[in-house]
Design a protein that fits this description.
This protein has one domain (10-20, 29-71). It is 48% helix and 11% strand. It has 3 helices and 2 strands, in the order αβαβα. The protein has helices at residues 10-22, 40-51, 62-71; strands at 31-34, 56-59. Strands 1-2 form a two-stranded parallel sheet.
């Protein structure tokens, strides 16, 4: 299965995701971030996503990510 790797400035993406969410550009789009460990920065992303109800989730296992993306757990 091919992998997509995207590098971006995460803090600047917050405004974009909020705008896209508010204008309903996202529709059913969801983002699963595969992370190795739960560091402070990753927890910050979790908190921001929960606060602003963004469809982004940090997961540690690929099968969890796929399941969340497909089944909307």
């Amino acid at each position: 299965m091919p992998e997509l790797v995207v590098a971006y400035d995460k803090s600047s993406m917050l405004d974009i995701f909020i705008c896209m969410r508010d204008d309903d550009w996202l529709g059913d789009l969801r983002v699963a971030r595969l992370i190795i460990e739960q560091g402070n920065f990753n927890q910050l992303i979790v908190n921001i996503c929960q606060k602003y109800n963004l469809p982004i989730r940090n997961l540690t296992l690929r099968n969890q990510a796929v399941s969340w993306l497909v089944h909307k757990l």
